[in-house]
Amino acid sequence: MKWLTRNFTGLLAGLICFDCLNAEDWPGWRGPRGDGVSLEQTDTVTWGPTENLLWKVPVPGSGRSSVVISGPHAFLTTGTADDLSRRVLCFESNTGKLLWNSVVPQGPGGKMHQDNTMASSTPAVDAQRVYAVFVDDVGMTVAALDRNGQVVWKVNPGTFYSNHGFAASPVLYGSGVIINGHQDGTAFVCMLDRATGEELWRYTPAVNLRSFSTPVLTEYEGRTLMILTGSRQTAALDPETGRLIWSAEGPSEKFVCTPSVGMGMVFSFAGSPDKKSLAVRLGGTGDVTATHVAWRAERGMPYVPSPLLFNGRLHIINDLGVYSCLEPLSGKVLHTARALGSTYSSPVAAAGRIYLFEDTGRCTVLADGANFQVLAKNDINEEVYTTPAISNGSIFIRTTQSLICIAPSVRQSDLSSGD
Asked: Pairing with 209, which of 175, 251, 252, 257 sits 20 to 30 Å away (CA)?
């Protein structure tokens, strides 16, 4: 059936690792499929500063990139003001031990929004390497590092200019890594060879306009599409060639959050100059604005937090903390509430639960459903502007000061016993 779509990041097209349902990696922004959903059956529901914290370690420098997990390793990017360096960090995921701290580029960070940092792009990781993207006052740097922290290759795919800085994350597809270079300067999207950094294709948007949105991969009717939001439009590209397949106008001019894809639809959200959303039916070609846009909405829409499509419902938390649950095919509002405080973090889901982190570090855990049924409210007493990762029965979250691993007591007992 057409509405059975799959999202991918960090996996070869057409392959999903169904044999790791109980222990899957979180190898890139918003997890293994780029949708914020983990297939793990984690038992983590409640925690606090002295409850169910497996470990907590300081993170050098500052950044708003989210943590990614691959096997025994957790990866972050960070920026340090004293030497103007941008770095990739590797921690041991079971203990939090810092294994290495590698400098990639150095130099002035360039212009950026007051809430942005030199390290806001979340890295992506495969079995051999970790891939990171940074910008400075000259241009963009993309680098691949091996599992020992050595730079394998480093390239500069183009200049970069934006008064608000940079935040889009790399996406792995086939033998390449896709980079979103939407900006107010010479905008581009490209794919680089994972092994060498060589450019495989380049797409030039019609409008030079910044977008912090990370592309999402989906399969529809036997074909892989890359969903891209930026330059005043929502679009689908062929990730093999970078060729534009279809586009729809809007929902607004500038994008930060990542679209959701599923049920035969693309759900796109933009926040400037107005916070708006639209739903586009998959399957079109060319300009599909008049033919494939199913619905548009404005009330309660987000700018920074990405929406969560989970078990047939679209969960939205906007920047002010207003929660909405929509029926995806029609856009009908099923429930809305002023439930949380200010929120940058994007919701994630696992084991029939939804996790919503506020900027204060408080996390509301919801039961799957449309009625905002609260299971727990947890606090770690540190500010959070990133999105958590779920892997191997644990929740990993970067705060403004630390990297924290949250795990139920049974998971901690397993580790202490060596299982």
From this structure: 175
Residue of 20, 1, 69, 75 lying closest to 263 (CA atoms): 1
Question: What b-and-e string marks burial along 118-137, b requiring 16 or more CB atoms within 10 Å of the CB?
Answer: bbbbbbbbbeebbbbbbbbe
pLDDT at 96 over 80: yes
Residue 16 pLDDT exceeds 70: no
Instruction: Fill in the amino acid letter for 339.
Output: A
Beta strands 353-357 and 363-367 are antiparallel
CB 52 within 8 A of CB 46: yes
270: confidence class by pLDDT, cuts 50, 70, 90: confident
Tens digit of each residue's pLDDT (9 = 90 or more) over 254-267:
788 999 999 999 99
- Indicate whether 52 pLDDT > 50: yes
Which residues of 81-198 form beta strands (DSSP E)? 85-92, 98-106, 124-125, 129-135, 139-146, 151-159, 171-173, 176-181, 188-193
Q: Alpha-carbon distance 70 to 47, whole Å?
A: 24
- What is the model's pLDDT at position 214? 94
Model confidence pLDDT, tens digit, residues 390-409? 999 999 999 999 999 999 86
Contacts of 24 (CB under 8 A, 6+ apart): 17, 32, 38, 39, 40, 391
Q: What is the pTM of this model?
A: 0.91
Q: Within its chain, how far is the Cα of 256 from the centroid?
A: 11
Q: Which residues fall within 8 angstroms of residue 414, CB to CB, at 6 or more apart?
A: none
Q: In 3D, which of 70, 102, 68, 69 has the Cα closest to residue 87?
A: 102
Query: Is the pLDDT score of 22 beyond 60?
Result: no
Rounded Cα distance between 175 and 68, Å, is 20
| Residue 418 CB partners (closer than 8 Å, separation 6+) | none
Taking alpha carbons only, the member of 302, 295, 258 closest to residue 276 is: 302
Q: Output the pLDDT for position 41.
A: 82
**Cβ-based burial of 171 (10 A; exposed 0-12, middle 13-18, buried ≥19):** buried
Say if residues 321 and 308 touch (Cβ distance below 8 Å): no
Tokens linked to 77 = 């990017």
**Cβ contacts of residue 169 below 8 Å, gap of 6+?**
28, 29, 65, 121, 122, 123, 124, 133, 214
What's the one-letter identity of residue 72? P
Contact 122, 142 (CB under 8 A): no
| DSSP β-bridge partners for residue 235 | 228, 247
Encoding tokens for residue 337? 């509430």
